[in-house]
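[Q] Does anyone have a clean structure-token version of this?
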Amino acid sequence: MILDFGSINMDLVMAVAALPRPGETVLCDGYVTKPGGKGSNQAVAAARAGAKVAMAGAVGDDGFGQVMRATLASEGIDTALLATSDRPTGVAYICVDARAENFIAVGSGANLAVRADQVPDDRLTPDTLLVLQMELPPEQNWALLQRARARGCRAILNVAPAAPVPEAALRDLDLLVVNEHEALAIAGGLGLDATSPRAAAQALSGRMSLTCVVTLGGKGAIAVGPDLGDWGAGFAVPALPIQPVDTTGAGDTFTGVLAAGLDAGLPLDQALRRASTGAALACLALGAQESMPTAAAIDAALPRLGPTTPIG
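[A] Here you go.
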């Protein structure tokens, strides 16, 4: 079972010719509303990849909240741990340009009301894989992570959006998932080597005794850990070659599919290959959750992914 402790938003997506500069107003034809939020996105990605998933978070007592509850349930996700807040459901405003680049502004709303004690101890078992992101109050993440570690629960943290992570929290993790900028920020904030994403990953892994996965966009991803079996200290997986339409949900798809693979008992290299493939497929349509692939779609595309290679 994957337990996703994370954010739930309604995304308002606008396709624009070019992203606005500060002080500039850009017009477009209209907008669409799509389910989102990093927690919700990763839960959906994991469920579509074949995992059994429970979602812990909060929505408002409003129309967006009703839609988000129904959407999660329609994906087969357990919503028993969702709270209803007097704050409005979180909203993200997303602009996507002709090159598939985006910018995002998030109104957190009900996500700020999420508390670690929404998750009872009996949900934190050695058979549970806890997935965390950075759109909830951070102290609630760390409180739940500490309880999870004490009960033998495995844990993944995706540091998105980038924010400081206490050293104690890093030591409670099994797997840290970051992009290039997040890797440098976290390592640098702890006084570790941040001369490159790879150096940052190696420094974090060595200092915290965790496995660090760094996503590299169109270059794929690397994994560095204290013991990666036949791969030694680390390896790299490529990206699936595609022509992207919208990259909004790619990172969340990567983490969700990765979690699904690990929950299914796959070795890290195989789980990462599925994650890299799934993330690429998620860039082929507009929107975050609607574009997330099924396990069958990932299986079909996986043979097109290049080889995994060791790194020193």
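[Q] Thanks! Anything notable?
[A] The longest strand covers residues 53-60.
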